[in-house]
Amino acid sequence: MLQTRFTKLVGVQHPIVQGGMQWVGRAELVAAVANAGALGFITALTQPTPEDLAKEIARCRDLTDKPFGVNLTILPAIKPPPYAEYRAAIIESGIKVVETAGNKPQEHVDEFKKHGVKVVHKCTSVRHALSAERMGVDAISIDGFECAGHPGEDDTPGLILIPAAANKVKIPMIASGGFADARGLVAALALGADGINMGTRFMATKESPIHQSIKEKIVANDERETELIFRTMRNTSRVAKNAVSTKVVAMEKEGAKFEDIRELVAGARGKLVYATGNSDEGIWSAGQVQGLIQDIPSCAELVSRIVREAEAIIRGRLEGMIAQPSAQAAE
Q1: DSSP readout, 195-208?
Q2: What distance in Å separates the CA atoms of residue 317 and residue 297, rounded to the nearest whole number?
Q3: 242 φ, ψ to 5°?
Q4: Rounded to whole angstroms, how far apart are CA atoms 146 and 31?
Q5: Which part of the chain is CATH 3.20.20.70?
Q6: Are the beta carbons of 48 and 13 closer than 8 angstroms?
Q7: What is residue 77's predicted lDDT score, i.e. its pLDDT?
Q8: Cα end-to-end span (Å), the chain
Q9: Separation of CA 237 from chain center
Q10: Buried b (16+ CB within 10 A) or exposed e, 5-36
């Protein structure tokens, strides 16, 4: 068993996290991750109202007696969701760990901490990680450029970002973006992280609440099957490459503004992808890690395989590389 500062902080068995994913982070997936000994997060804003979120948390509790959390992403919006009400639903439901993401969550961090909730904040740069640490969060999730969703605007890949953050961040840190297997977990630990966060990999599991055709599409795709949209608007988002995302990128190159592409990128269309299995229905998130995903296991199979193989790499491959001094050299 791999014990780290992060597993001790949140009370889980394995240093593996299933972070918030819009339309995907539902009770059946989160409970399966929790039952596998890892940490899963329900995505708050997938639920249409704070009352629905409370019901989803209760549904997850019916499926597991292990710890799980809720993701609350704070993004600029013309008509922002009632964040304070979602926050209250999380606290009143007795959730003990929250993943925050997005703009300056100080108000939320303060309120969660007041109620004994541990806060893990997602960041895409060292400076944002240090800012979150100063805000009083308990752990950082550092997202490299490879990740699905929002990789920030610095384009720093995990191989640089993780150790750069580990050099400066004092609180526990999990690495995100490009992780799918034991090799990634061992690499993240070697780079100074205390665990890994996986999104796209958990989408392609038996319990993931998306259409089987999309799971199969993730397995079939290689590491080149993503697009970076909203680059020209400095709100970069990595999504699966399809007819819609390719069109959006082409329109941006021609100077399109957000209102010109609004209909193409609507969240309702992305939701349809997961419901219908038509991968060209709208925009949907997936990372470059698709190139490392070869099967659709259960969450239990996936987590146990990663941990078992990680221990084998550490004990076997890496330890075996340390040359023992010969008797002659010792004389």
Answers
A1: -EE-SHHHHTSTT-
A2: 25
A3: -155, -175
A4: 27
A5: 11-208+297-317
A6: no
A7: 75
A8: 38
A9: 14
A10: ebbebbebbbbbbbbbbbbbbbbebbbbbbbb
Q: Which of 284, 287, 301, 279 is nearest to 206 (CA)?
A: 301
Q: Please write the tens of the pLDDT for every residue from 88-112.
A: 999 999 999 999 998 878 999 999 9
The whole-angstrom separation of Cα 178 and Cα 176 is 7
Q: Which CATH superfamily is domain 11-208+297-317 in?
A: Aldolase class I (3.20.20.70)
Instruction: Give the 3-state secondary structure percentages of the chain, helix then strand then coil, rounded to 5.
Output: 45, 15, 40
Cβ neighbors of 171 (< 8 A, separation 6 or more) are 133, 137, 138, 139, 140
Token pair 């209250």 is found at 88
- Cβ within 8 Å of residue 60, ≥6 positions away: 27, 30, 31, 34, 42, 68
Residue 132: C-alpha distances to residues 83, 252, 322 (Å): 19, 32, 38
Are the C-beta atoms of residues 195 and 4 closer than 8 Å to each other?
yes
| pLDDT score, position 207 | 98
| Secondary structure of residue 126 in the 3-state scheme | helix
Contact status, residue 77 vs residue 91, Cβ threshold 8 Å: no
- The H or E element that residue 102 is part of is strand 97-102
Say what percent of the chain tops pLDDT 70.
Answer: 98
Residue 84, Cβ neighbours under 10 Å: how many? 12
Alpha helices in 229-298 (DSSP H): 243-253, 258-261, 267-276
What token pair was written down for 326? 């010969």
Q: pTM score, two decimals?
A: 0.96
Is residue 330 pLDDT above 80, yes or no? no
Helix (H, G, I), strand (E, B) or coil at 34: helix
> Cα-atom radius of gyration of the chain, to the nearest Å?
20
Measure the CA–CA gap between 165 and 114, rounded to whole angstroms: 27
